[in-house]
Amino acid sequence: MNQILGTLRSSPAVFLLCSLTFLCSCNETLPLRDDPVLPLTGTVGSEVSTVFQKDGSVVYHEVIIFPKVKNIYDETLQGYGDFKGVVKVVWERDSSYSKTFTLDRNSLTENRRYKYDADLNLLTLDQGDEVSFFFRWNYVVDNGVRIDTLFPLKVDLSCWKIVQVPRGKRYANIVWNPRQFTVERFIVSGYIKPFKDLAAVIIQPFVVTIEYETFLKGSCASLPNPR
Predict the structure, then answer these.
(1) Domain for residue 106, yes or no?
(2) Is residue 111 part of a domain?
(3) Closest CA to 161 of 225, 227, 220
(4) Residue 188 above 90 pLDDT?
(5) Are 176 and 158 in contact (CB under 8 A)?
(6) Domain residue limits at 47
């Protein structure tokens, strides 16, 4: 036991996360502590991106979602790493459409704000450190439907242009470029389990808002000269 603990940081500012079985095998008496019930908090970030072809045409839109946990404890947390989690994205308009993502080590972001010893499988989180995951979503839900095809498009009246074009002795009214758009909301929730011997951290429901447009935001196609 002493040999195992000797590989870990011995500073009193480090809070070791051990299972009950592991603790009971030790003879030392641990002092009473006033530790927080939830030393970690779970949050979500997101961004919307568009994938283009070489000629500039849009291939598809996608959402990048960043579930993460942060050490809000005033001491360092240290224990065996687990790096697991499940995140579910639900369409607010119709909850029967959802997408479930399973998180693992391959889902971790490259910008690490924690210390990890792969040989010992030892994860260390100082105060303020966080473990961040990411995944890309192209709007395809669990039943295989591409949900953006179900978005009810509306018309942006600011892009309506009525032009009178001469037709002989009379004029014809032409309505030009009604831009279509929709605003949809998705609820992201789930859990992340960064430590083997610490309970999973629940992610509080987070709303991702998507503005889905047939043209770039704030633009209307120019009106060509009538012939």
Answers:
(1) yes
(2) yes
(3) 220
(4) yes
(5) no
(6) 2-25+37-146+185-213
Q: For the whole model, what pTM was predicted?
A: 0.72
Position 16 confidence tier, pLDDT thresholds 50, 70, 90: low
Select from 72, 46, 80, 77 the least CA-distant residue to 61: 46
Query: How many domains does one find in the chain?
Result: 1
Reply yes or no on whether the pLDDT at 38 is more than 80: no
Name the phi and psi angles at 114, rounded to 5.
-165, 170
- What burial class does residue 180 get, using C-beta atoms within 10 Å of its C-beta: 0-12 exposed, 13-18 middle, 19+ buried? middle
Q: Which residue has the higher pLDDT, 33 or 86?
A: 86
Task: State residue 204's pLDDT score.
Answer: 86
In a domain, 174, yes or no: no
Angle made by CA atoms 20, 40, 128, in degrees to the nearest 5: 125
pLDDT > 90 in the chain, percent: 45
Domain contains 173: no
Closest CA to 44 of 66, 69, 71: 66
Residue 174 has a CB neighbour count (10 Å cut-off) of: 12
Instruction: Give the residue among 140, 151, 153 at the shortest CA–CA distance from 93.
Output: 151
**pLDDT confidence of 176, banded at 50, 70, 90?**
confident
Angular region, 219: left φ>0, alpha ψ -120 to 50, beta rest = beta
- Is residue 42 within 8 Å of 87, Cβ to Cβ? no
Burial class (CB in 10 A: 0-12, 13-18, 19+), 207: exposed
